[in-house]
Amino acid sequence: MADGPRADFSDTPWWLSLIKAVGIFVYLLLSVLVVIWAERRIIGRMQQRPGPNRFGPFGILQTLADGLKLIMKEDVTPKNADKVMFILAPLMVGSLAFVSFGIIPMGGEVSMFGHTTPLQLTDMPAATLLVLAVAGVGAYGFVLAGWSSGSTYPLLGGLRSTAQVVSYEIAMGLSLVAVFLYAGSMSTSEIVAAQDRWWFAFPLFFSFVVYVITMVGETNRLPFDLAEGEGELGGGFHTEYSSMKFGMFFLGEYINMFTVSALATTLFLGGFHAPWPIGAINDGMFSEGWWGLLWFTGKMWLFIFFYVWLRGSLPRVRYDQFMKLGWKVLIPLSLVWVVAVILMRAADPSIGYFGEGRLPVIITTAVVILGVVGGITLLMARLEKKEQQTLEDRRPPVEVDPFAGGFPVPPLPGQTLVEPTTRAPAVTAAKPVAGSAAGATTTVVADPGATEPNPTEPNPAEPDSAESHDTDGEDTRG
């Protein structure tokens, strides 16, 4: 059962919902304008440079100038592009980014235009699954953008981005399962209400860490921006886009950052509840009404700062390492964690982890967890060893002969050249050849690779002189 009531929208007319939808739209757009400027300033300070400081006080209007620049740029469509899909892809990515924010509770109940309504656009029994569903549909935007461009590099970028999103959505969904089990609901408002005493980031710390890793991979941000690695793909799936079509991808990326950060705040950091000890004053007085919007925004910006911090600190990882982390580490460990949470909740749902008088359940839980983790660790170690052995077998030799194939071949990085064996060509003594002019001689140069003839043995290639010539030099053979 859920630990708290669901948000009440009975006193919310349709026009008030429309006003709240417009308010969320403006809230996100203003947040994007601020975060782009803040990201450049923070990374500039981390790299000992000022960052944008020309346009507006402290460069605060630099983002507005960048937006105007995108609008004024020429909108180019490739000749081989599928024009309908080429236009639909950025619209899909940019518009779907706003949808997920509709189920996020940004505050408690407030009074707006004479009506009492929660600071949330809508809620439903399976509201959290809407975020995963929208993220899955958003992957089609990357595929369509790469495929419809009619070029090789965007196609590769679209495929890589889709593989990345799909693989990390699985681990993200598994990390949310533990929250559903602990809260007893998938409604975002009920999950926030269940954290009035303890934030889920503490009892579900492993799920929190997995979600933070997957949300960075889900949004294609450093160190996981492999789908847009300029050094590898020339921009990724949006290589052929310009003007505001590119701006829609740019906007969708930052809106997704706020969406996954808001979801992390809702599921793990108590949502709009004030942090301790402020939340304990007057029975949570500072968590009610419009105060909740302040705490919600502050928590969400902590994750945004974490994004910026990662971008300024870590290099980009290799693609095979990134996919190995998702499929071989995060997904198996998340499965084990979900089983552990199920067993621990079965001990005593009213207390949380461990119940009184349930020692056999606790012991069984520990044995199962250790057994599964140990089995997965051994299996991964064997696979890793086999993969290393395969790489060793395929590794080219360290020393190579550049003339082994008959023509010079340059060595690969890490290889050394074997000095070829050089010998001076052997020269035989000059001797007269029959039928030549008097006194003419022919010098025969022996092949360096041929063996030297033995002077004591007759040469079968030459006829015997006693049988072939007489004393006068005439041929006596019949």
From TrEMBL:
The keyword Zinc-finger does not apply. Residues 430-478 are annotated as: Disordered. It is a multi-pass membrane protein. Pfam families: NADHdh. Signal peptide: none annotated. One of its GO terms (molecular function) is oxidoreductase activity. Its EC number is 7.1.1.-. PANTHER family: NADH DEHYDROGENASE SUBUNIT 1, NADH-UBIQUINONE OXIDOREDUCTASE CHAIN 1. NDH-1 shuttles electrons from NADH, via FMN and iron-sulfur (Fe-S) centers, to quinones in the respiratory chain. The immediate electron acceptor for the enzyme in this species is believed to be ubiquinone. Couples the redox reaction to proton translocation (for every two electrons transferred, four hydrogen ions are translocated across the cytoplasmic membrane), and thus conserves the redox energy in a proton gradient. This subunit may bind ubiquinone. This is NADH-quinone oxidoreductase subunit H.
